[in-house]
Each structure stands twice: as C-alpha cells, then as structure tokens.
Amino acid sequence: MGRKPCCEKKGLKKGPWEPEEDEILVNYIKQHGHGSWRSLPKLAGLLRCGKSCRLRWTNYLRPDIKRGPFTLEEEKLVIQLHGILGNRWAAIAAQLPRRTDNEIKNLWNTHLRKRLLCMGIDPQTHKPFPPCGGPTVAAPSSPGTRHMAQWESARLEAEARLSKDSLHSNYPPFLKPDSDYFLRLWNSEVGESFRKLNTEHSTACRSPISQASSSAVTVDACPNIAGSSTPASNQIEETECKSFKSVTEEPMDGSDSSCSNESEDSSDTALQLLLDFPINNDMSFLENC
DNA sequence: AAGTGTTTCAACCGCGACCAC
DNA sequence: TGTGGTCGCGGTTGAAACACT
Predict the structure, then answer these.
(1) Subcellular localization, per the record (predicted)?
(2) Cα(A194)–Cα(A186) distance, rounded to whole angstroms?
(3) Which one of A56, A65, A190, A200 has the largest count of C-beta atoms within 10 Å of its C-beta?
C-alpha cells in the first residue's frame, strides 16, 4: 500500500523555477499569505505542487533570507550546534536567523564535514578518530583534535548536568531538558526579549549562544590554537554580551504572566548553562584547514 | 580548446509528526 | 481511538559550474 502522492502530479512542472514563477509566487504570498500550501498553487495559478512552492518560498524567495557565503562566525556556530543537535538542520537554522536549514545542510555536507574529516575528527560524533587498530583515543594528536576533544568534553558535561537537573526538578513542558533545550530557551520569551534588545543594539551577536559564548571566552588550553590569528570579528564587545545577561537574569516584566516561578527557576538554570557553555572558545583552527 | 572529474546547491522524495474530524 | 490530510524535516539527487589535465 503506497502512500498517496502529496499532490496530483499530472501536468505539474518539476525542476528549476523560472523567474516568472517566482514572481507569481511572491506576489501571491505578499497579497494573501501562503495559507494552505496544498491549495496555493491552484489559487496562484502555478503548475507546481504545494510542497515545491513551500520549499521555493522558505529556501529562496522569503524576503528575510540572507544569501551569500557563510561568515567564519556562522561556520563556527554551525559546527558547535551540530555537536549539540546533530543533523537537526532546522534546529540549527533556528539559531542562525536568516539562514535556511537547506543552506546549512549544504554547507555542512560540502564544506564543514570535509574540514572536520581532514582534521581527523568524526563529523558525526565530533570526536577524534581512534588511531588505526588501537584502543579508543587517549590523547588527541593535533591542536584541532585536542580542541574538539575539549569541546566534546564540555558538551558531555552540559548534557550530564541537564540529566542531573532533570532528576531533581519538574520542568515545565516547554523546557524539558533534552537536546532541544537550548532551542526551546531561545524560542521562549527569554529569547524573545533578547532578540528584541539585540536588534536595537547591534548585529554583532546573532544568538544567545554567540552572546553567551563571547562572555565566557577563556584562554584556550591549547596555546597553539589560542595563539593563532583570530579575526577581529571574534572580539565581540563585552557590553553587548552583558546586555543579554542583564535581560535574561532580571525577572521578566508583567507582560506575560504565564511563566510560573517554577519555570523561571528552570529558565535561570538553563540560562546559566547557556552562559557557561564554552562555545566560542577559539576555533580559529578552522581557518587553517 | 576539448574532455573529464569534482564540487556546489537548488530541488525532489519519503517519512514521521501533528491536527481535525 | 482511528483515519486522512497537511506540513516540516532530513536524506538524496542531478544539473550546472568549476577545476584540472
């Protein structure tokens, strides 16, 4: 029993979109919103299936999409988030506003995965490959792998802390401590407040993670890495990062009273973990590969 | 210049989750 | 509770662009 096709395929166009089709789609959505994707093509007069329209809009035509090459900061963030979230591109994309999951997936598959491989790091586990025929690696052999081992260690520690916390507290549903932890936090009103403030101030820090990480920057234990050239863009102003802390550490205003004390406590814990997370430790080794 | 191999990325496909009935 | 419709996600594909010989 096969699954019904998502749409009637007869007479529907496939393949690359024509500029005229783009124009029709954009104009329609601007006027009516996308509504039901399934019925959109018919209403807009497009010979495409709804799925194709949705994909074209979300990955290419949406006005808030940032196109062009990824910055080093963005690449670092993708690698870091991949270490936490794995191949959950949509979750990763949620941390990189204006970038699409498809774009990030392509970046990973074409650039970042290879870069990690060339450094001797398993792109799936973010762990150094064990030496041939030997036991599990004991001491990473290159600065890059040493750094990644540190990162992995920090990640595991954070996970352990989350697991531990989950044993002692009842998390509200929106903050269940699993791997979506940070994502939910970012999508909560805490993240909302931060985004608002961040928009007003600067575009230097793009997410709570980059903000938090800049405040948590420490000298990397590996001097070879720490000593390598770091782009000026890495030096995110401390004041901006403090602004995130101040917003998130202060009680929320009364505009949204749905957040109970219990959930506030959980948010505080989550925030602290977030702020402690050593994400923006020097990853300039990426530039050298 | 032509042929061949490699890389990139937009688009497709199938599956699972969610929701309304 | 079961069923069907819809949406979103992640894996994969294939044409175009690019690099190399």
Answers:
(1) Nucleus
(2) 9
(3) A190
The reply to whether A87 Cβ lies less than 7 angstroms from strand B is no
DSSP state of A68: S
Q: How far apart, in whole angstroms, are the C-alpha atoms of residue A135 and residue A253?
A: 54
Q: CA A111 – C1' B8 distance (Å)?
A: 10
* A113 CB closer than 7 A to any strand B atom: no
What is the CA angle A270-A273-A278, rounded to 5? Answer: 145
Q: How far is the CA of A269 from the C1' of B9 (A)?
A: 40
Tell me if residue A245 falls in helix, strand or coil. helix
Give the SS3 label for residue A121: strand
Q: Is the pLDDT of residue A104 over 80?
A: yes
Say what the alpha-carbon torsion angle A163, A168, A174, A175 is, to the nearest 10 degrees.
-50
Collapsed DSSP state (helix, strand, coil) of residue A81: helix
Split at pLDDT 50, 70, 90, the class of A146 is very low
Q: Nearest nucleotide to A106 by CA–C1' distance?
A: B9
Lowest mean pLDDT among A6-15, A62-71, A113-122: A6-15
Q: How far is the CA of A58 from the C1' of C7 (A)?
A: 13
Q: Cα–Cα–Cα angle for A70, A289, A115, nearest 5°?
A: 65
What size, in residues, is chain A? 289
A82 touches strand B (CB under 7 A): no
User: CA of A60 and C1' of B8: distance in angstroms?
Assistant: 16
Whose CA is closest to A119, among A279, A285, A231, A284? A285
